Amino acid sequence: MRMRHRATTALAVLTLAMGPAGTALATDALDDTFLGAVHQGNMAEIAAGGDAQKNAVSVCVRETGKVLVRDHTLLDEGVRELSRKLKVALPRSVTPKQEQELKEIRKKARTRAYDNLWLRAQDTAHVQTLDLLDAEAAHGKDATVREAAKKARPIVAKHLDMVRDCMMHMPPRHR
Question: Three-state DSSP class for 124?
C-alpha cells in the first residue's frame, strides 16, 4: 500500500495523473494509471524537447531537446502498442498543468533564463519519472508493463544525466 501511495504521489507531482484509464485485461489500476501517465509524460517531453530546439540559447539544451523528442517518440510508440494490447485507454493530451508549465518557460524564450527554467523542469520531471518507473517495475501486476518500465529506466536516466551535464555547463549566474 505504501508503494502504491508513493507512485500515486509521484504521478501527482509529475502532473501526469489521469482519470480512469478504461478497461484492462490483465492490469490493475496502478498499471493502467502508469501507462496513462507515461503517455502524457512522453507527450509533454516531446513538446518540451521541440520547444527547446526552437527557443534555447545553449547548444547543450537544444541538443538535449532533440534527444528527448527522438527517445520519447520511440518510448511512446511502445506505450501505445502495449496499451492497445491490454485495452487500456490513454489520454489524448498533456495535462493542463503540463501545458501551463511549458507556456511559463516559453515566456523566457531565447534567453539564458529559458535554458535555466527548462533544465530545472526537466531535472525534476526526470527524477520523479525514475521513481515512477521503479515503483511500476517493483509493484506492477502485468509482467509486460513491468518490463516496459524496466526498459525505459536507462533511457530516462540518460536524459537526466544530459540535463545535469547542461546544468553544469551553464554560466554560474544562470544556475
Answer: helix
